[in-house]
Model the fold of this input.
Amino acid sequence: MSASKSECCAVFGIHSDEDVFDRIYNGLYSMQHRGQESAGIAIFDGEKIRIHKDMGLVSEIFKERTLNGKIGIGHVRYSTTGESKIENAQPLMINYAEGNFAIAHNGNLINSLELKEELERKGSVFMTTTDTEIIAYLIAIEHIRTGNFIEGIKNAMSKLRGSYSLTILREDKIIAVRDPWAFRPLVYGRSDDTHVIASESCALDALDVEFMRDVKAGEILVIDNGVESYRVCAGKISHCMFEYVYFARPDSILDGVSVYKVRKNLGRILYEEGPVDADMVTAVPDSGITTAIGFAKASGIPYGESLIKNRYFGRTFILPEQEERESGVRIKLNPVRSEIEGKKIVLVDDSIVRGTTIKKIISLLRKSGASQVHVRISCPPIRYPCKYGIDMQTYDEFIAREKSVEEIRREIGADSLVYTSLDGLVRAIGLPKEKLCLACLTGDYPLKEEQMKLKF
Ligand code: SF4
Done:
């Protein structure tokens, strides 16, 4: 399978009666874990929309206040190889016959090729390689055709298949849109006259804004002087399980479920499904920590730190090149020999994709004197690519595709290896199984022909 345009990002939007630049900055900063390649802010200054975006972290790009205004949106992004370029940074600005708007997108379309071809045949010229531009052109074309911006969004939604959580800035309005299957999270918060849309609730907490609710599947939320909701269409709900297991921050609450609680539950269930006699439970920081605490609590084995993370290093999983990933492990994690020496260790991590990182970590623990390393993984084996916005795209990336659990154990050099079962994962999340996307585990992809049909 060739490289696709998958990307996972964070979107943000704010409508206020005071200047919003600092709050967009803080909102994006709190969601930096969702994307570290580029960031951008678009603000309506009362006359026009101005955008500042660049490659790098939020703190590197916005060293000083560059935009002023009371209404704006923001975006942080990461992508796959070859797409890490400024043209693809967001928000994206679209100028057309009816004016202009800025748009920020988290997700991935599965029918982007068909839509792009159709648009190109009608004369559209694409400046980026992102799905976001396709969405923007569809909205603009449908706006021109119907004479109404919201109708334009509704009509565009009827053509889009895949995951999209959007924030759109048009003049003095911000508009939030969530796809009819609700793959990616999107929340709405309010504090007096300030309305905020964000990918994760942790961004609302960072701004001291009260969480009001999740944006619903297939909903358009328009915020100007008031808030108007249009429930446009409904599909089969398919919340991404990986948001709970790995991607989201543990202090976020997504679709009514605390990510922290899910990860603690996973630790308990992992112990029930893979008990072991050991001296210390430890985690691959940061994403394994909460699950390791849950495992320690359930097992009675003390939790301890065996690896210290360099906090200024990006997530290993997110770096675009495999080579960078491998050499990055040693720079990112340093073992604490005094805690490890002579001990039987339970090492908890969220998932194994390629197996290279965990192999390196186990080797580090052994070199630091661990007598045994028992690996417990909170996500069941990942065997299938994600089509809906998480950066796992080719079959040959997955160690579990060709190898049994025992073969993987030998390959990574663990004394034992247990993954949470699929049922255990669903129990830990606590949502009905039919409301979750589990496709990268089961190969059963949502959005089959019959599920593509939307009720409008
Ligand atoms: S395939 Fe996996 S990573 Fe992708 S949306 Fe579904 S559960 Fe999430």
